[in-house]
Amino acid sequence: MKARRILVLGGTGFVGRSVCARLVQSGRTPRVLTRDLSRSRSLQVLPCIEIVRGSPHDPDALAKALDGVDAVVNLVGILHQSARQPFEKVHVEFPARLVRLMGELGVRRLVHVSALHAAAAGPSLYLQSRGRGEEAIRSATGIEATILRPSVIFGRDDSFLNLFAGLVRPLPVVPLAGASCRFAPVWVEDVARCVDVALDDPATIGKSYDLCGPGTYTLADIVRFVAGQLGKRRTILALPGPVAQLQAMVLERLPGPVMTRDNLRSMQVDSVCGCGFPAVFGFAPAAMEAVVPEYMGRQGPRDRYDRFRSR
Ligand SMILES: NC(=O)c1ccc[n+]([C@@H]2O[C@H](COP(=O)([O-])OP(=O)(O)OC[C@H]3O[C@@H](n4cnc5c(N)ncnc54)[C@H](OP(=O)(O)O)[C@@H]3O)[C@@H](O)[C@H]2O)c1
Predict the structure, then answer these.
(1) Ligand 1 center–CA 310 separation, angstroms
(2) CATH class of 5-153+187-212+273-286
(3) What pairs with residue 149 in β-bridges?
(4) Atom 25 in ligand 1: which residue has the minimum CA distance?
(5) Within a 13 Å sphere around the CA of 95, how many CA atoms are in the beta-carbon half?
(6) Does any ligand 1 atom lie closer than 6 A to the CB of residue 161?
(7) Does the Cβ of 213 fall within 6 Å of ligand 1?
(8) pLDDT digits (tens, 9 = 90+) for 276-293
(9) Cα–Cα distances in Å, from 259 out to 122, 134, 194?
(10) 266 CB near ligand 1 (under 6 Å)
(11) What is the pLDDT of residues 91-118, one digit of tens each?
């Protein structure tokens, strides 16, 4: 039977917005629990969506949000930790509490979005915490979970390609840490489609799927690609290890850091998949070259309206 009422945790984020739109498109009713209603503005235009204010860390708010749903999609995650929100709390304790509460309330189905190469013995605190979060979900009794492990995700509002776009615009020479690290970026709409397919396919229960796009690029290739989209030619200065560490040490002290030493440790493993895109989802993922030119670098009147709408 099709799962119709879906609690989407982390639904206001970059991936969450695409997931909610996809769920609505396939006839479902998402319910989004958010700590900050103002972050849900772009979701409010979707028909049949319910947006509820509350913290997923508040057991009462979470229990209320779980009431009457058929399934849960968990997209809660952070790339940088802070004293107020450590990885342990967001990536390990939260999913453990979520599956416990789901078990108590009889909600069995969960699609959990983690990260490629998440492992308790991973090279960074980020990957270790994501790995332990996955373990908490796998060991929960009575929960029918599917775990999706994407490489870096790109899309119009991402914080990956847009970060580099922000760098290459003003800088003729781009100093780049981890320049030779390889990535297989996957399109946000493809990740959303996988969530949607997984919700109805019992064959995905108890499985984990690595999600990569069709192309593999070094970080330097990606920055060159972004510069090309913006009509710029840029020189990339690959920072040697100790300089990259120093740069990250400075950047991680800034508010809303763009890079930390832990991010550098995550890049010790290439963010690429060992196998092709999982056949169970029934489609081939889109390449960056097919999607990004549709939105990056365009400055027509429609794009000015888009910026207006997003505010
Ligand atoms: N973007 C990528 O390239 C990428 C790659 C691999 C895996 N992932 C994973 O995919 C998921 C979604 O990523 P995203 O890019 O959409 O992230 P995002 O834009 O930063 O959104 C994260 C969402 O999680 C919620 N959230 C953040 N911190 C929280 C906290 N401390 N407690 C409770 N809720 C919190 C936020 O909800 P409210 O603020 O509304 O409460 C927000 O909607 C994450 O788990 C991420 O790790 C992303």
Answers:
(1) 18
(2) alpha beta
(3) 210
(4) 10
(5) 30
(6) no
(7) no
(8) 999 999 999 999 999 999
(9) 18, 24, 28
(10) no
(11) 999 999 999 999 999 999 999 999 999 9
Cα gap 165→48, rounded to integer Å: 35
Are 102 and 38 spatial neighbours (Cβ–Cβ below 8 Å)?
no
Give whole-number Cα distances, 302 to 8, 90, 291, 308, in Å.
30, 38, 17, 10
Q: Is 160 in the pocket of ligand 1 (CB under 6 A)?
A: yes
With CA atoms as reference, report the closest residue to 156 among 258, 297, 301: 297
CA-based nearest residue to 149, from 256, 292, 269: 269
What is the pTM assigned to this prediction? 0.95
Task: At 7, give phi and psi (nearest 5°).
Answer: -85, 120
Nearest residue to 187 via CA among 15, 40, 8: 15
Does residue 196 contact residue 3 with C-beta atoms inside 8 Å? no
Q: Which of 91, 153, 209, 266 to mutate to test the pocket of ligand 1 (most atoms within 8 A of CB)?
A: 153
Separation of alpha carbons 123 and 72, rounded Å: 29
Which atom of ligand 1 is nearest to 152's Cα? 3
Q: Which two tokens stand for residue 252?
A: 């991680």
242 backbone dihedrals φ, ψ, rounded to 5°: -65, -35
